UniProtKB/TrEMBL annotation:
Its cofactor is Mn(2+); Mg(2+). It is an enzyme of class 1 (oxidoreductase). Keywords: Manganese, Metal-binding, NAD, Oxidoreductase. Belongs to the isocitrate and isopropylmalate dehydrogenases family. SMART domains: Iso_dh. It catalyses: (R)-malate + NAD(+) = pyruvate + CO2 + NADH. It comes from Amycolatopsis alkalitolerans. Its EC number is 1.1.1.83. Coiled coil: none annotated. Residues 4-345 form the Isopropylmalate dehydrogenase-like domain. Gene3D superfamilies: Isopropylmalate Dehydrogenase. This is D-malate dehydrogenase (decarboxylating).
Length: 352
């Protein structure tokens, strides 16, 4: 069968890693007997500099007919980050009801990690981040002047929004180790977080076979570093999930290895896959970015299309190349280029 995929390389290293992910996905599609029809969109900070918008006004309609979206990264010095984020990423996530941000991490072979002594494969977690509401809201503003100046920022937690993300986490836990931990902070944040906790407890009661637990975000962050093997599925609000997923990526091998999916579970709209990392202006244009995160985002895309075997062959190819250790980008302690690592992974894709 044929799939229509929208490609948005974006800015900085987003462009470099996108090329490599496409290379690997093409190889997997060829071997597994399906066709990926790519359409490329130049939506980026460069476009913003030329036209004043990150994407055209009908951007959402243009993407609506695609099966999935693969996004590089957006954001670049010269354009404020809130412009790139609110001008592209957040509108797409919301328009397509991509209310789950799924961020799986695994300790991969050949990676630098603070978790000395642990072996690859031993550590596996997934952050289920709420992706449509919560702390990332436009409600609020700046008031007053001088010493009396202040800023207000409101969070929005709806029953529907919290129920569906928590339920998604429990369903996911059933397919994994059967453990869910919820990130909270109901001791300090006294309206939204107790509401979140209450709904978590209600849903937990529907899943007596899944071990559930609530943990304050600060303690959970410490646990993620000190006892990550005690964690499997983490469910968290938009802000808490954002922070915990970078931390989870850092403890399991770095930002260059962590993929993510903005998922519309009902598949009524396209889902959007991307690396957790951004456009890395500090190394952009040097050809040294690690393409693994974007390649694994591509594997998640294949999985979401229902091409499970192809997805598995991409992840396996990544592991093979990292374990051999001969081709590695500087963040992994090697001297290889982005393209060399991408090509090595593409060549390692096999039908198992
Ligand atoms: P970043 O993730 O781009 O970079 C953080 C650090 O990690 C940098 O030192 C970078 O060199 C390194 N790094 C990241 N990815 C790497 C890779 N694949 N290989 C090797 N090293 C890698 O985060 P930062 O610097 O906070 O943001 C840069 C820009 O990216 C900003 O404009 C930000 O808004 C945007 N951004 C966009 C995201 C998206 O499109 N979803 C997500 C995060 C940031
Ligand atoms: Mg982030």
């Amino acid at each position: 069968s044929d799939y229509r995929i929208a490609s948005i390389p974006g800015d900085g290293i987003g462009v470099d890693v996108q090329i490599e992910a496409r290379k690997v996905l093409e190889r997997a599609a060829e071997l597994h007997g399906f066709v990926l029809q790519w359409t490329e969109f130049d939506w980026s900070c460069e476009r913003f500099a030329q036209t004043g918008t990150m994407m055209p006004d009908d951007g959402v309609q243009l993407l609506a007919g695609f099966d999935q979206i693969l996004l590089g990264a957006v954001g670049f010095p010269g354009v404020p980050d809130h412009v790139s984020l609110w001008g592209l990423l957040i509108p797409l996530r919301r328009a397509f009801s991509q209310y789950v941000n799924l961020r799986p991490v695994r300790l991969l072979p050949g990676t630098n990690t603070v978790l000395a002594g642990r072996t690859a494969g031993e550590l596996e977690m997934v952050i289920v981040r709420e992706n449509s509401e919560g702390e990332y809201s436009r409600i609020g503003g700046r008031h007053g002047t001088g010493a009396g100046e202040f800023a207000l920022q409101e969070s929005v937690f709806t029953r529907t929004g919290v129920e569906r993300i928590v339920r998604y986490a429990f369903e996911l836990a059933k397919t994994r180790t059967g453990r869910v931990v919820s990130a909270t902070k109901s001791n300090g944040i006294i309206h939204t977080m107790p509401f979140w906790d209450e709904i978590f407890a209600e849903i937990a009661a529907e899943y007596p076979d899944v071990h559930s637990e609530q943990c304050h975000i600060d303690a959970l962050a410490a646990r993620m570093v000190q006892q990550p093997e005690r964690i499997d599925v983490v469910v968290a609000s938009n802000l808490f999930g954002d922070i915990l997923s970078d931390l989870a990526a850092a403890v399991t091998g770095g930002l260059g290895m962590a993929p993510s999916g903005n998922i519309n579970p009902e598949s009524t709209h396209p889902s959007m896959f991307e690396a957790v990392h951004g456009s890395a202006p500090d190394i952009a244009g040097q050809g040294i970015a690690n393409p693994v995160a974007q390649i694994l985002a591509g594997a998640m895309l294949l999985d979401h299309l229902g091409e499970r075997a192809a997805a598995g062959s991409v992840s396996a190819a990544v592991e093979t190349v990292l374990a051999a250790g001969e081709v590695a980008t500087p963040d992994l302690g090697g001297k290889s280029t982005t393209a060399e690592l991408g090509t090595a992974v593409a060549e390692a894709v096999k039908i198992s």
